[in-house]
Every structure is written in structure tokens, then in C-alpha cells.
Specification:
The protein is an alpha+beta fold. The protein folds into two domains: 2-58; 62-128, 2-Layer Sandwich (Ribosomal Protein L30, Chain: A). Helix content is 62%, strand content 15%. It is built from six helices and three strands, in the order H-H-H-E-H-H-E-H-E. Strands 2-1-3 form a three-stranded antiparallel β-sheet, with helices on one face. Helix 4 crosses helix 5 (89-97) and helix 4 (74-85) runs antiparallel to helix 6. It is elongated, with a radius of gyration of 24 Å. The two termini are 33 Å apart.
Length: 129
């Protein structure tokens, strides 16, 4: 059971974390993997992984949810959603009548903040997930 958990945790590591684990194991056991591994290839892989990790952290999906609407603000929130998402009145009303509700997924933090600002100024309570 312990070994299975350990293997699961190791498989969830990214390349940089796995490299750190290998370095620490080499130090602890006083061994070297250089005799078994092409280190030039690893360095290239690590540089690629650094680039991948940087770009993936920038491009995480941001789900924009309307949690609730302030009293007497339903109409202004309906208008804001309709304008932001280019929806018809029926689709917009379905979103507002079934809160909390995800209204958009974006990769841009700036776009998410713009949506939040617009919706909150109309009277909605907005959360990101």
C-alpha cells in the first residue's frame, strides 16, 4: 500500500520535480545516475519542461461563475450577461434563474477580470474557479 502511494505520487511529478527527486536520491545513497543516463538529453528535456511549465501556468482555464444577484438587480445583470455573451433573452434568463452558474471559461486573467468587473457593477456576485 505504501509503495503504491509512493509510485502514484512519483507519477504525478513534473519533469523538474522528478529531476530534484533524482538529485536528492543520488546524494542520499551516494550514487550517480550519469553512468546510466544521457545527461545532455536530460538538460534539453529540462529546458523544454521549464518552457512548458511557464506557458501552462499562464494558460490555465478560469471558469467565471455568477454565484448570486443582489436584490433588485436582476434586470441589470440580465442585460450585462446578454451583452457580454451575445445571448438571446431566453438563454440569458436560464442562466440567471439557475444560480450559481458558470457563464464562461477563459485562459486570460485580464478577460476574466473584465467580466467580473462588468457583472459586479450590474449587481452580480462573481467567483472564479
Amino acid at each position: 500500500m505504501i509503495l503504491e502511494n509512493l509510485i502514484k505520487q512519483i507519477t504525478e511529478l513534473n519533469t523538474l520535480e522528478l529531476n530534484e527527486l533524482i538529485i536528492n536520491l543520488e546524494k542520499y545513497y551516494n550514487i550517480s545516475t550519469k553512468d546510466f543516463i544521457d545527461t545532455e538529453n536530460i538538460e534539453t528535456t529540462l529546458e523544454t519542461s521549464k518552457l512548458d511549465n511557464t506557458s501552462s501556468s499562464i494558460q490555465k482555464d478560469i471558469d467565471i461563475y455568477i454565484e448570486s444577484i443582489l436584490p433588485d438587480k436582476k434586470i441589470s445583470v440580465l442585460k450585462a450577461i446578454k451583452n457580454l455573451l451575445n445571448l438571446g433573452l431566453k438563454e440569458t434568463k436560464e442562466i440567471v434563474d439557475n444560480l450559481p452558474n458558470k457563464i464562461k471559461t477563459t485562459k486570460s486573467q485580464e478577460e476574466a477580470n473584465d467580466y467580473k468587473k462588468e457583472l459586479e457593477s450590474a449587481g452580480a456576485v462573481v467567483k472564479f474557479k
